[in-house]
Amino acid sequence: MRLIFQTITFLLFTTVLQAQIRDTIYLWPDKVPNEKLEKHAPKQTDNSRGNVTRITDITNPALVVFEPKKSNNLGAGIIVCPGGGYNILAIDKEGYEIAEWLNNLGYTAFVLQYRVPNNQLGALNDIQRAIRIVRNEANYYSLNPKKIGVIGFSAGGSLCARASTLFAVDSYPKADAIDKLSCKPNFSMLVYPAYLDKGKDRSITPELVLGKNIPPFFIFGTSDDKHGNSSLVFTQALRDNYTPVELHLLQNGGHGYGIRPSNIAGRTWPTLAEVWLDKTLMSINKKIWTKNFPKSTIHVNSTPKKENLWVFIMAGQSNMAGRGFVEPKDTIPSKRVLTINKNKEIILAKAPINIYEPSFKGLGCGLSFGKRLIEQIPDSISVLILPTAVGGSSIYKWLGDSTHRDVPLLTNFKEKVEFGRSIGILKGILWHQGESDANKNNSINYEDRLHELFSNFREIAEDNELPILLGEIGSFSKNIYFTSINNQIRNYALTHDLILIKTSDLKDKGDKLHFNSAGQRLMGQRFADEYIKKY
To answer: Is 363 in a helix, a strand, or coil?
Structure first.
């Protein structure tokens, strides 16, 4: 059951946010645990000191969703926890204004209205439930469920620290399937946190037990903050626990400045946090992205006879190079589907096949092409797939033999053709490219440049009839020039009797640019099926 409601949020304290329609997610569809009062709307206090809107008496906890106008495609969702001493929530200064900042960076933010006043157990219930709900709704908001983080201010920082250390504790009875999901944040950001030093002699608060798998922390505070010791004590405890932590301590700034530029600390921490977020998410990305990459390589000691080895060249840019998530099944090799490593040694093909872009490589269509093809050709034939595709390479760069990401495009293509012809029979080229040319200037006469490049390919291969299989670029982009490129690809395939691989039904991986893993596998199978039909 989805718990999202479209509501009009009237935020009278800032003109930027007035009367905006946002998703509001109520955390508890039925009874709210550890809450005696009936559900009702939050109450705004009469205290507006410091130009801050304060709300209290929260009995129906909720998340207010802020989606960016332009996503950074990092897939991270961040829950924002305002402070207020566990009595009120500074909902604008430490909530909605922070969400707007995150939106400007391309992140989806969720402002948490947790229970106040004086219900710290209820607040812990709420943040644990909120993390689970955002994780459950990750697909709806184009997020990665393994990149759900928290950011908190003052008491909100305390709440984030509690969520980041007490995730193994069930603070409330499980209510539904959502509660089976992890409530552990994948990263945690504390800005002028409070109440983390309630132990003996101002040591770490006893509730905060640091065990294994504590998420990485960003902590910011100032020396003149009356709660400043919290940052120091908690950082030391994290350090002693070998938990990744980055602490920034300014001399001046006090407490409760939010992101407002009138305070030097409020001007300083956002830039530091932005850099930390980039680094941290890059580290998380690498762990997630590469976790299923093959741990071993299987070399082929005896290659098939030349007449029994069919060679195919993979050329183009990122969707041919591969940007899909590698799953365990993509690393199961076949003895008849081969490729090469960086040293040109023949190995059994496992995803990822791309050998040129260590920071970008993922699942491509090559392995599924090879596996599908060998199902339809004699058992005596093996398939050798030679990668030459490099992400971000425009057709101009291919024609000019530019060095792109350290790869001389046409020269490398020629080397792979010569290598393939020396040990097998060159049977075709799999081509997928055009995204880098889907713009006002490069889309003009793209078809003519395609013809020039394919003529060069066949000249290099010394085969004017060499089969070239041509894939459509994705239809999921709203970029009008994608349509122009696809129209020219289709027309060229039709007028030059080339094999066209249709992709209009394939899905992207959330970035409106690259096919997802299922799409990559299907595209590879279609390359194989269409090749068999024609040849």
So the answer is: strand
